[in-house]
Amino acid sequence: MTCDVVVRKPDGTVYGEQQKDMVGWKGNYNFPAHAIQLTEEHMGIRIEPQDPSGVYTVEAIVHDNIKKINLSLKTTFEIPK
After folding, report:
1. What is the pTM of this model?
2. pLDDT tens string 36-71
């Protein structure tokens, strides 16, 4: 499994760098139950004071590279004014 992730600013432009072909999680999952970690690689989002307020979108496409199936996931979070 691999995963492509992109974070979009409230105006729809890409925030930071799009992550492509992140390797999916294998083995034991030694993180708290509330953690969301689909891949072995880490991707952090840091909102800086100069970044715009509004609704940010996180989009992920999970690729099953054996069955050739893709799953699109999307969530949002809001930065208040």
Report:
1. 0.78
2. 666 777 778 889 999 999 999 999 999 999 999 999
The Cα–Cα gap between 36 and 44 comes to 12
CA distance 37 to 74: 15
Evaluated on CA atoms 35, 7, 42, 81, the torsion sign reads: negative
CA distance 26 to 49: 36
Neighbour tally for 33: CB within 10 Å:
5
Q: What SS3 string covers 25-55? A: CCCCCCCCCCCCCCECCCCCCCCCCCCCCEE
